[in-house]
UniProtKB/TrEMBL annotation:
GO molecular function: chitin binding; chitinase activity
Lineage start: Eukaryota, Viridiplantae, Streptophyta, Embryophyta, Tracheophyta
Presence of the UniProt keyword Zinc-finger in the record: no
SMART domains named in the record: Glyco_18 (SM00636)
Species: Tetracentron sinense
Protein name: GH18 domain-containing protein
Record-linked Gene3D superfamilies: 3.10.50.10, Glycosidases (3.20.20.80)
Family: Belongs to the glycosyl hydrolase 18 family. Chitinase class V subfamily.
Keywords attached to this entry: Glycoprotein, Glycosidase, Hydrolase, Signal
PROSITE patterns: GH18_2
GO cellular component, one term: extracellular region
Cleavable signal peptide: 1-24
GO biological process: carbohydrate metabolic process; chitin catabolic process
InterPro entries in UniProt: Chitinase_II/V-like_cat, Chitinase_insertion_sf, GH, Glyco_hydro18_cat, Glycosyl_Hydrlase_18
Alphabetized PANTHER family for the sequence: CHITINASE, GLYCOSYL HYDROLASE FAMILY PROTEIN WITH CHITINASE INSERTION DOMAIN-CONTAINING PROTEIN
Length: 364
């Protein structure tokens, strides 16, 4: 009982502290730098961002410690000081996991207090040793309700540890964020929104990948993979954001994802080139994804026709039998206005290395 009250007192204090800090919180204009893109860190126009996420650190499946691979060691260590040359007030976060990491390793880690502690302590050490001002968890995705509950426990314990480390080091507490699904449910289970609300600074809402030419369910028809609206389904960014809002999680904890990439489908008939046109999976041997810079090159090289659909807020272009769904400037501008109108904390790009001369990043 006593310990329960102490815990309550602790979270009340945390809440008060948080109110104080969020009152001064400015809009987040975030972006991920993805090491695999090989985009040089020194070329990032960091004046366009308030926060940059360095992706990705790894979770060791034996020790449950967060590690930085030897290939990433030098660029990650150098990341913060390099991006702060052009923008000294920029904050950087070390992002852990990502779409190609194994969700089962995260599930096992979050399942036991000793392995959560290994994760938490090593992540804090790694952030400080490499000059980051925060940590971001990209666990894609928890698959059961107990995994979601464990994720919530992890967030609460992470916050306690980060607060203790800050008192101890006299440094500002590390920021804590997580990348989450576009809607507050994934795999039919709900995110731990109470823990998110009290223990994370915000979540990055991955508002994209609704359709892709490599998914069995969407390979045979073109589709807008990140439409803001969809009058005929619940798979859209506005549906996701209003669902997050309905959980009671503050809008000031939501940062909207903007995809700086699209997907190329192979049209069955080049004359039938609209939305939902019959298609034969991805163009090329991969998943059909293309960076915004590649898409702009494709449009110029092939004199592709580009269409902005203001009903759903999405762009597509086509030439020959290639059809590409993506976000062009008008779509990004409209999504940024949407984020502001809904009172969200901000927005972020996945990922900065594929912008085209900073055209999309400048729309914020
Ligand atoms: C970087 O962004 C700033 C602010 O928009 C702009 O003035 C500058 O021209 C940009 N630099 C490059 C190289 O695009
Ligand atoms: C480290 O960053 C500096 C700029 O801060 C840059 O000049 C240097 O090339 C970087 N070194 C490596 C190994 O990335
Ligand atoms: C979580 O722990 C329970 C009991 O401690 C165990 O039965 C279960 O297999 C564990 N799950 C994972 C994903 O490690
Ligand atoms: C506080 O600092 C001491 C000395 O550096 C260290 O041994 C201890 O583990 C730290 N505690 C926390 C919670 O960081
Ligand atoms: C939900 O959205 C409405 C309308 O934008 C807003 O007034 C309300 O504050 C939001 N709820 C939370 C908990 O932020
Ligand atoms: C725009 O999208 C709406 C909704 O899917 C659709 O009805 C309309 O035909 C589309 N317009 C164009 C030009 O593709």
């Amino acid at each position: 009982m006593a310990s329960k009250n102490l815990l309550l007192l602790f979270f009340s204090l945390l809440f008060l502290l948080h109110l104080r800090s969020s009152a001064g919180q400015t809009v987040v204009k975030g972006g991920y730098w993805f090491r695999a893109s090989e985009f040089p860190v020194s070329d990032i126009n960091s004046t366009l961002f308030t926060h940059l996420f360095c992706a990705f650190a790894d979770l060791d499946s034996q020790t449950y410690q967060v590690t930085i691979s030897s290939a990433n060691a030098v660029p990650f260590k150098n990341f913060t000081k390099t991006v702060q040359i052009k923008n000294p007030s920029l904050k950087t976060l070390l992002s852990i996991g990502g779409g190609s990491s194994n969700p089962a390793t995260f599930a096992s880690m979050a399942n036991q207090s000793t392995s959560r502690k290994a994760f938490i302590d090593s992540s804090i050490k790694l952030a400080r040793a490499n000059g980051f001002s925060g940590l971001d968890l990209d666990w894609e995705y928890p698959g059961t309700s107990s995994e979601m509950a464990n994720m919530g426990t992890l967030f609460d314990e992470w916050r306690v540890a980060v607060a203790a480390e800050s008192r101890n080091s006299s440094l500002p507490p590390l920021l804590l964020t997580a990348a989450v699904n576009y809607a507050p449910r994934v795999n039919s289970v709900s995110y731990p929104t109470t823990s998110i609300g009290r223990s994370l600074d915000w979540v990055n809402v991955m508002a994209y990948d609704y359709y892709a030419p490599s998914y069995p369910r969407s390979r045979s028809a073109t589709g807008a993979h990140a439409a803001l609206y969809d009058p005929s389904s619940q798979v859209s960014t506005s549906f996701g954001i209003s669902s997050w809002n309905q959980t009671g999680l503050s809008s000031k904890k939501l940062v909207l994802g903007l995809p700086f990439y699209g997907y190329a489908w192979q049209l069955v008939n080049p004359q039938n080139h609209g939305l939902y046109a019959p298609a034969n999976g991805p163009v090329g041997s991969g998943d059909g994804s293309m960076g915004y810079n590649q898409i702009k090159d494709f449009i110029v090289t092939n004199s592709a026709v580009s269409v902005y659909n203001a009903t759903i807020v999405a762009d597509y272009c086509y030439a020959g039998s290639t059809w590409i769904g993506f976000d062009d400037s008008q779509t990004i501008v409209t999504k940024v206005s949407y984020a502001k109108q809904k009172g969200l904390l901000g927005y972020f790009a996945w990922h900065v290395g594929v912008d085209n001369n900073w055209v999309l990043s400048k729309n914020g």
